[in-house]
Write a structure and sequence with these properties.
alpha+beta; 9-stranded mixed sheet; about 40% strand; globular
Length: about 120
């Protein structure tokens, strides 16, 4: 079966778009919230994805437009980012949070993946 769209292959620890490799390198350290904000607003992040659904094998990714992320940063993202390993959803506005992974594209630019938990 051919896979469509962007996804993380958790066995290979790689991001794909259909069959094309997008990234095979996960940054070891998570940036601070301030660093993340600077990366988004200074066009350092090349692409942003959100993962709303994942299994043990695969995380399905939805590509977000960087301009949409910037315009909704203060209302939707900033206060809902969790940089810890665990989260209590009651501590976040509207009962959801985003865990963060930073990947490196084949061109060397950062790719931001937000895992939504609700």
């Amino acid at each position: 079966m051919r896979r469509k769209g962007y996804f993380i292959d958790k066995y290979k620890n790689q991001i794909y778009n259909d069959q094309a490799l997008v990234s095979s390198k996960l940054y070891p350290d998570t940036p601070t919230l301030q660093q993340l904000e600077e990366m988004i607003f200074n066009s350092i992040v090349e692409q942003v994805f959100i993962c709303n659904y994942q299994t043990g094998q695969k995380g399905k990714l939805e590509k977000l437009l960087i301009n949409d992320v910037r315009s909704e940063w203060y209302s939707k993202f900033k206060n809902n980012i969790c940089l810890d390993d665990e989260a209590y959803l009651d501590n976040f506005p509207n009962g959801y949070c985003f865990f963060v992974e930073l990947w490196e594209s084949e061109k060397g630019a950062p790719i931001l993946v937000l895992f939504k938990c609700h």
